[in-house]
Amino acid sequence: MQPLLQLQGIEKSFPGVKALKSASLAVYPGRVMALVGENGAGKSTMMKVLTGIYSRDAGSLRWLGEETTFNGPKASQEAGIGIIHQELNLIPQLTVAENIFLGREFVNRFGRINWKKMYAEADALLKRLNLRFNSHKLVGELSIGDQQMVEIAKVLSFKSQVIIMDEPTDALTDTETLSLFRVINELKAQGCGIVYISHRMKEIFEICDDVTVFRDGQFIAERPVQTLSEESLIEMMVGRKLEDQYPRLDQTPGEIRLKVENLSGPGVHDVSFTLRKGEILGVSGLMGAGRTELMKLLYGALPRTQGRVWLDGRDVTARAPQDGLANGIVYISEDRKRDGLVLGMSVKENMSLTALRYFSHGGGTLKHAAEQLAVGDFIRLFNIKTPSMEQAIGLLSGGNQQKVAIARGLMTRPNVLILDEPTRGVDVGAKKEIYQLINQFKAEGLSIILVSSEMPEVLGMSDRILVMHEGRCGGEFTREQATQESLMAAAVGKQHSEDLVV
Ligand SMILES: Nc1ncnc2c1ncn2[C@@H]1O[C@H](COP(=O)(O)OP(=O)(O)OP(=O)(O)O)[C@@H](O)[C@H]1O
Ligand SMILES: [Mg+2]
């Protein structure tokens, strides 16, 4: 089949990093091409070279059979290539419709913007994606998931022939993901070619026709998805067999460290649980069940209406995030883009930001040396791909940014570590590295709360599991009792009270 788009032998270097060594990719009409590879393998860079955001150092690009170079994102967009970037690119102060049609507002023959038409077209796009908000809404008021859907609506509005989606479902609920998949199938039927970048194996096998594998900036293989198994695909990605994805550490937990009693607040009603030393409590539930809200309440980032939190028998009920931190309760946000990292600052600064007080003993040089050492240790421990600790974190690949966020939390030597979706956007190999690190800290007695939408992750790593349902505790399970089915039943509110563990 003649590809719509073909890139061959692409090379691209940045100071200190050769991001693409010899990368190739083809996009076929009416087919979805998955692009997979570990964090930092060069997937996003390839897409930026392709759309003309970056120039290439070497290699060829053929668009509709002709050798081409796009001198900027506008050129590729006009040629018919649409891209949904890994990072959101919306303007929060503008409405949904203004964002979708930014820079190409409908102008009538008197030179006036035809607002009515713009909003009507935007609403039609939202409807096509089954979205419940209208296009007059300000983007800044939408959830991250809805903002992602606006990015998708925007790319659809261009009526492109090739559409690139760089980890589009990271912030989406299951229903939103289904709407996206339905639209992808529509686009396929119209003959569009799609590039789908994701770390979620399930999605690749569900929606993609072919898969291209990158490793270290190089093309490894292109295969039809149906000829592969999950294991064989992972093996191509990481270059070795990956066994035992969830390395659970079995140990008898210590005494009770954290006790949460009847906690209530926005989106959370009367939740109680305990957490021991050296224990991992998994928190499961559907998106919107109040998991993140519960954690924010616990940590002091949301106002509490009722309830108490005890740490080692002391009342540590938090009123502000500083209270949580001061008590050694550290929360690593699911949304590292909004309240996680400072993208313009270096890896070092981002990592040691919250841990600064630990380096504040002794004089200036001593402090500096200690910081340097600790950051260096964590970069090695987490295998973070960066040319140096001075690199701006915005220049790291998405997954490597996530590793920095987790390292930052651990650096403060917390008593209780709350990880909210810690492996979102992280590749399979690095996921396992993160699990092993979590276990290492668990062995040292750290108490961990693991909030995750990925059922296998919760099941594979937790000692006990709390399931949230509509802001309440929908069930609590020991590791032995928990199965995919029982967790799912509790998440949708089908749990019978007699099954509850007290
Ligand atoms: N503008 C830039 N300046 C310097 N280095 C960069 C820049 N953009 C990307 N890199 C580096 O190039 C390499 C490839 O990054 P890229 O973002 O393409 O990876 P990726 O495959 O998309 O990873 P992920 O799955 O984590 O999103 C990484 O080492 C990254 O740090
Ligand atoms: Mg990327």
TrEMBL record:
Major subcellular site: membrane
Superkingdom as given in the UniProt entry: Bacteria
SUPFAM superfamilies: P-loop containing nucleoside triphosphate hydrolases (SSF52540)
Alphabetic keyword roster: ATP-binding, Cell membrane, Membrane, Nucleotide-binding, Repeat, Sugar transport, Translocase, Transport
Record domain ABC transporter: where: 5-241, 240-495
GO function terms (MF aspect): ATP binding; ATP hydrolysis activity
InterPro entries assigned: AAA+_ATPase (IPR003593), ABC_carbohydrate_import_ATPase (IPR050107), ABC_transporter-like_ATP-bd (IPR003439), ABC_transporter-like_CS (IPR017871), P-loop_NTPase (IPR027417)
Family to which the UniProt record says this protein belongs: Belongs to the ABC transporter superfamily. Drug exporter-2 (TC 3.A.1.117) family.
Protein name as catalogued: Ribose ABC transporter ATP-binding protein RbsA
Native source organism of the sequence: Candidatus Pantoea deserta
